[in-house]
Amino acid sequence: MQTQVVTIPTGKIMDWETFHDVFDEALGFPGYYGRNMNAWIDCLTYADDPDSGMVANPVANGDLLTLSIVDAADFKQRCPEQFDALIDCAAFVNYRRREVGDGPVLALLIDGNFG
């Protein structure tokens, strides 16, 4: 299993609008991306399906897309609702895939001092 790491510049996230701007820019969601967490989950569920067009640079089948969450402690303090949704929805992407017999596709690399 290999991983493709995409850095998420959380310093640009201030609210839901900027949350979706940052992830859309980093991952290349399709033009019809709904800019809500259900749409976010839908896009990332298919991060290994090049025919779906859900992310600009899909990973190979069986590989992981790793989201490097830069300055996560600051992000969590500034935007606790968005931070919690990110954690919950990333977990749901993999749960959803496992429910249909697929392997996980998404990982989070949490970078930040929570001390």
TrEMBL record:
Pfam family, one: Barstar
Protein name listed in UniProt: Barstar family protein
Lineage: Bacteria, Pseudomonadati, Pseudomonadota, Alphaproteobacteria, Sphingomonadales
Start and end residues of each Barstar (barnase inhibitor) domain: 4-93
Domain of life of the organism encoding this protein: Bacteria
Protein family per UniProt: Belongs to the barstar family.
